[in-house]
């Protein structure tokens, strides 16, 4: 797909088919995240792709707890979640959040380019400050000083491609 078409037409998808995505597509999405720009080129982000159904259920539960309401499926039934962290041993909190956001955006666009649906999902920061979140990291054999930023729900879209909201006026100014 043409790069500009991907950037303009990607939309958040909030209904997924249960079918799992292909491993090669997942790896390409993660690779797109690896190549996103990072402050000072320090490559502070770290990604955890979760496809285990029980772990996905736990993550949905934690997300609901953080929201404080019984939202049926904070990750919209997506079969793959990509949790995005930064490593405080590599960068500071300001750059870490920016680096992770940069990687997430690349991955959302890569997913769309590969014919997949995705959605940016919040609440990762609080989730991995909770004991249950830290326990997941421990179970996965991942060091606990990673700071969660956000996550992606990824899968085959089970909805019509949404139309974008009209863009606000005066989004930019070109100064010559
Ligand atoms: C920082 C940030 C947090 C977001 N958190 C959520 C979320 O928790 N749940 C959700 O469904 N969408 C979330 N989104 C997706 C936005 O709602 C979505 O990008 C926006 O409505 C524009 O729609 P589009 O992505 O289709 O262009 C988030 C997006 C960003 C950038």
- Order of strands in the sheet with most strands: 1-2-4-3
Question: Which CATH class is shown?
Answer: Alpha Beta
User: What small-molecule ligands were found?
Assistant: flavin mononucleotide
Unreliably modeled segments: none
Strand content: 15-25%
Number of strands: 4
The number of helices is 6
Describe the structure.
This protein is an alpha+beta fold. Helix 2 runs antiparallel to helix 4. It has one domain: NADH Oxidase. It has helices spanning 3-9, 23-34, 53-67, 93-113, 124-127, 131-139, and strands at 45-50, 80-87, 117-121, 146-155. It is 39% helix and 16% strand. Flavin mononucleotide binds at residues 11-12, 14, 119-122, 162, 164.
Main traits of this protein?
four-stranded antiparallel sheet, NADH Oxidase, binds flavin mononucleotide, globular, 176 residues, alpha+beta
């Amino acid at each position: 797909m043409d790069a500009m078409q991907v950037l303009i037409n990607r939309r958040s998808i909030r209904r997924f088919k249960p079918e799992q995505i292909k491993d090669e597509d997942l790896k390409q999405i993660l690779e797109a995240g690896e190549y996103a720009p990072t402050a000072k080129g320090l490559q502070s982000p770290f990604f955890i792709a979760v496809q285990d159904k029980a772990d996905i259920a736990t993550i949905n539960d934690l997300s609901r707890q953080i929201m404080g309401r019984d939202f049926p499926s904070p990750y919209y039934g997506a079969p793959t979640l990509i949790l995005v962290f930064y490593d405080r041993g590599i960068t500071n909190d300001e750059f870490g959040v920016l680096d992770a956001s940069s990687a997430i955006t690349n991955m959302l666009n890569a997913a769309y380019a590969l014919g997949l649906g995705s959605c940016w999902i919040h609440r990762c920061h609080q989730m991995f400050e909770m004991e249950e979140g830290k326990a997941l990291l421990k179970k996965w054999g991942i060091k606990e000083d990673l700071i969660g930023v956000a996550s992606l729900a990824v899968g085959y879209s089970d909805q019509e491609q949404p139309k974008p909201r009209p863009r606000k006026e005066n989004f930019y100014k070109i100064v010559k």
